[in-house]
Amino acid sequence: MARPGGRSARVQQAVHAAVHELEAEVGREALTVPLIASRAGVTPSTVYRRWGDLRELLSDVAVEHLRPEAEPEDTGELAADLTVWAEQFLDEMASPSGRAYIRDALLGDPEGANAGQCSAYAAEQIGTVLRRAADRGEQRVPDAETVLDRVVAPMMYRILFRPGGLDADYARRLVADCLTPERDRR
Amino acid sequence: MARPGGRSARVQQAVHAAVHELEAEVGREALTVPLIASRAGVTPSTVYRRWGDLRELLSDVAVEHLRPEAEPEDTGELAADLTVWAEQFLDEMASPSGRAYIRDALLGDPEGANAGQCSAYAAEQIGTVLRRAADRGEQRVPDAETVLDRVVAPMMYRILFRPGGLDADYARRLVADCLTPERDRR
DNA sequence: CAGCTAACGCAAAAGAATAGCTTTTGCCCT
DNA sequence: AGGGCAAAAGCTATTCTTTTGCGTTAGCTG
């Protein structure tokens, strides 16, 4: 955006707020650009020009919803920190609204910038957990890439491609397997 | 569908064929229901009634594209079989058209049936590879779930959420790590 | 072969998206 | 401060998509 301040900023905020309100009032399926624009006190053409289409707008909004609200909990031990974080992550992402936001974020975003942001959020939180562990002097702290591959990716894959059968125990198993590489599998 | 044979089947095939043709001719972005319907020799309302909207239709077509065309190669050894398969899988899925099909399949499919089908295709191919290995009497053959979690899921996650930086070497590493669980990580 | 009904065609109407042009409003420069 | 430039929003007409109601066709069943 060439003009971050003033009217542009107000319009962006009004439109995002309108999406939030209308999502709650009429449901995601019933959202349309004219409806959102009218609620935001803006003309539809403004929305089309700024966002291109409804999908891209919803993609933007979805990324906001997916931003973590707090720092990961600090229990004093890596395994517990990661487990708690993974359980909560899975819980949020696998819920109906979480799945809807993920899909929206992926969808209206051919370049992958919004999707990349989602991954960056997770990477950031994991980085925090791992850094704490390293600062405490814990041994065998994996790197963030490994945790993304071994914990986050399987959860996301199942959320997107294999609906059903996801629970906190699965998250715990992934974390445990990730932290104990010598464990034998059949 | 209550009437699998006759006209219904012909319409379905004509519409799918029209999508294929037009994808090649005008590009995915330019596809519209009226355009597809006219090419298929059908009225738009028929398409809307059968598929609901464009996204669901494209989701159906995408799943067809994602169906594997051949059995996995048989090299006589599990590690090589899996490596070859993963390399090819990543290559196809990470390509621009592969990514587009994945997104389409996920998108127009609130129930997740089409997405589940994609995962089932991969599981089937992996199952074939693992079964061969077991029949040969190889030791330490993982189960299909493990391969999905450790090989397929990370590739898919990166394709969807972290564009860029994907190559055959990554696929090889995932397979190797999956087959040698005692390997130490930092 | 006769009846039933799902599925399609047709056409009208509602709604959404686009494009051209005008107006407003930040922002920068003197 | 004031003036000029250009980005962004408003307005409106037009096009295209989507929905809907009703009549027709054509598989399926007895």
Characterization of this structure:
2 copies of one chain form a homodimer. Chain A is an all-alpha fold and 186 residues long. Chain A is elongated, with a radius of gyration of 19 Å. The longest helix of chain A has 24 residues. At the A-B interface, α6, α7 and α8 of A face α6, α7 and α8 of B. The structure holds a DNA duplex (30 and 30 nucleotides).
Keywords:
Tetracycline Repressor, domain 2; mainly alpha; 71% helix; 2 domains; 186 residues; Homeodomain-like_sf (chains A, B); Arc Repressor Mutant, subunit A; DNA-binding; homodimer
Derived from helix and strand composition plus strand pairing, the structural class of chain A reads mainly alpha
Strand tally of chain A is: 0
Shape by Cα distribution of chain A: elongated
Q: How many structural domains are formed by the residues of chain A?
A: 2
Tell me the β content of chain A: under 5%
The value of Rg of chain A in angstroms is: 19 Å
Main beta sheet of chain A: none
Largest interface: A-B, 34 and 33 residues
Helical run tally of chain A: 9
Question: What name is given to the CATH topology of the largest domain in chain A?
Answer: Tetracycline Repressor, domain 2
- Quick one: CATH superfamily of the largest domain in chain A? Tetracycline Repressor, domain 2
- List the helices and strands of chain A in order: HHHHHHHHH
The averaged pLDDT of chain A comes out at 92
Cα-to-Cα separation, first versus last residue of chain A: 54 Å
For this entry, what is the oligomeric state of its chains?
homodimer
Protein name (chains A, B): TetR/AcrR family transcriptional regulator
DNA-binding region (chains A, B): 32-51
Organism (chains A, B): Streptomyces spirodelae
Pfam families (chains A, B): TetR_C_11 (PF16859), TetR_N (PF00440)
